Amino acid sequence: MTESVDTQEPLVRIRGLRFSRGNRVIFDGVDIDIPRGKVTAIMGPSGTGKTTLLKLIGGQLRPSAGTIHVDGQDIHRLGNRALYQLRMRMGMLFQSGALLTDINVFDNVAYPLREHTDLSPSMIRKLVLLKLEAVGLRGARDLMPSELSGGMARRVALARAMVLDPMMIMYDEPFTGQDPISMGILVELIRALNDASRLSSIIVSHDVQETAAIADLVYVISDGKVIESGPPEAMMNSDTEWTRQFMQGLADGPVPFHYPAAALEQDLLEASC
Amino acid sequence: MLDSLARLGRVGIGVLERLGRGHLLLLAIFVGLPDLLPRLGLLLRQIYSVGVLSVLIISVSGLFVGMVLGLQGYYILSQFGAEQTLGVMVAASLVRELGPVVAALLFAGRAGSALTAEIGLMKATEQLSGLEMMAVDPVRRVLTPRFFAGFISMPLLAALFSALGVLGGYFVGGGLLGVDDGAFWAQMQAKIDLHEDVYNGVIKSFVFGLVCTWIALFQGYDCVPTSEGVSRATTRTVVHSSLAVLGLDFILTALMFGE
User: Fold this and answer.
1) Exposure of B130 in the CB half-sphere (CA atoms within 13 A)
2) How far is CA A38 from CA A65, A197, A256, in A?
3) Rounded distance, CA B132 to CA A64, Å?
4) Which residue of chain B has the CA closest to A59?
5) Inter-chain touch A92–B136, beta carbons under 8 Å
6) Helix B227-257 crosses helix B99-107 at what angle (to 10 degrees)?
7) Could you give the CA distance from residue A1 to residue A183 in angstroms, rounded to a whole number?
8) Chain A, chain B: beta-carbon pairs less than 8 Å apart
9) In 10 A of CB A66, how many CB atoms?
10) A65-70 and A73-74 strand pairing
11) By the 8 A CB rule, do A217 and A229 touch?
């Protein structure tokens, strides 16, 4: 794999990012640095565009303004070939796992190797079994995706994302809908894989406790802007009321419990007219 | 008034945008062809799924359509004492028109809708995005093999439909209604022209195969990635394919057989 341009530079540098869907502004001048070798969490309430941010970093969406540099390359200025070369060094774990449903676990993990390398079948077999061993699913290699639980599917997807030994892995809501055991396994796996494989990880999540437990750096975004960033402990005790409400899961605060509406009395009186 | 004009304009722009996206997708599918040649296994798997699995419905339908043609043709021709030409009537109807057209309508209903649902669900479950992030072009790996499988399978299915239709017509005419066997086959052999009838039918079935598979793949690839979106796209595939087949049949017939 290609060596990084400058190991002191952030792996991902986002500057002045703007992105809209129709009339709705998703990002309005966002600046984010994702350091190398760390676990960086992007957190925020549902619907703030966290998954969209990952798609922008992966070059699947184009911003209306601003730049995203990944390993020193402006991802939205790359040609198709260069973009695909760069993506080979970026793994992504989708919320649904995104496993190919017509092939089994082994073939899913082997898929990137068969597509991008000339390795012999026996070497591919060894690599796939090692990656499956790392996520604890070597014994499930012959199962079809439909036979896996949600947690197992994500672990298989993680093995697939790692199989080309990428420089970074992006996790899209990895803990959503997981039972406590699967969640615990995933939390430990993400941290252990990041450290053992010298990866850089980006976790997009709104599961505060789990994400804060393994993150080195947290960005909190809302209303298209970065509200605050820093180590998780500092964010938990932030001076900013909004950040404290989100990190501590308080029902009311700067983000109101009620969706904007007319006064209750007025609504009730109108209904009785 | 101005609002209505603006709405009309928006609809027109929307249609043009979709047409543009559809043609760009078709171009990308053809550009992916050289990549498919070293991976013929992918193509064969899709020919099985799109073509072989459609054989039953095509065979049964062809047989029954041929039997009905034999029955109806016999009643009309016998009024003019021309029942011995039943073979020509059945074969010409099937090879020129009914074979390609009905096979294409059945193909759109069975294989086209399945293709749209499959691609739409792959989009909804992020499998296509997953391929992109694995640095694999989903158009080349997923759509190109399916497109050429449909393009190859459709003429073969239309030929099967026509062949079984002729057998069905023979079974009713020769077997049940007493048309002379020799006359049935000899008249057919004498009057059906390889270029005029058979080749034109084959050209039609290639065109229908291309259009039906293209529509099915585009609808799946362009659908809103929700269960409702996939359902709507599947319906659109059947409706658009059927209309396209019938409209194109008229145009091709006029071009091929018009004076």
Assistant:
1) 28
2) 27, 11, 33
3) 21
4) B133
5) no
6) 170
7) 31
8) 49
9) 18
10) antiparallel
11) yes
Token pair 């997923």 in the structure block, residue: B142
Structure tokens that stand for B93 in this block: 């109807």
And the tokens for A173?
A: 């809501």
Model pLDDT for residues B86-145, shown as the tens digit of each residue = 999 999 999 999 999 999 999 999 999 999 999 999 999 999 999 999 999 999 999 999
Q: Is residue B30 within 8 Å of B82, Cβ to Cβ?
A: no
Residue length of chain A? 273
Task: Give yes or no for B2 touching A (CB within 8 A).
Answer: no
- Contact list in A for residue B125 (CB cut-off 8 A) is 96, 98, 101
Instruction: Provide DSSP, A28-41.
Output: EEEEEEE-TTSEEE
Please answer yes or no on whether B129 and A60 come within 8 Å at the CB atom: yes
Question: Quick one: which of A209, A93, A213, A228 has its CA closest to A159?
Answer: A93
Place of tokens 């820093």: A230
Find chain B residues with C-beta within 8 A of A111's C-beta. Answer: 134, 136
* pTM score of the predicted model: 0.85
3-class state of residue A44 by DSSP: coil
- Pick from A6, A9, A5, A12: nearest CA to A69: A12
HEC-encoded secondary structure of A80-106: HHHHHHHHCCEEEECCCCCCCCCCCHH
> Which of B130, B136, B137 lies at the smallest CB-CB distance from A94?
B130
On whether the CB atoms of residues A8 and A33 are closer than 8 A, the answer is no
Place of tokens 């041929």: B66
Tens-place pLDDT, residues A179-234: 888 788 888 888 988 988 888 999 998 888 888 889 999 998 888 889 889 998 88
**Which of chain B's residues have a Cβ under 8 Å away from the Cβ of A58?**
132-133
For residue A36 the two structure tokens come to 């190398």
Q: So what's the ipTM on this one?
A: 0.83
8 A C-beta contact, residue B201 and residue B162 = yes
Strands A65-70, A39-43: pairing is: unpaired
**3-class state of residue A143 by DSSP:** coil
| Chain A residue numbers touching B127 (CB-CB < 8 A) | 98-101
Task: Name every residue whose Cβ is closer than 8 Å to that of residue B160 and which is 6 or more positions away in sequence.
Answer: B55, B58, B59, B62, B103
Rounded CA-CA distance A196/A131 in Å is 13
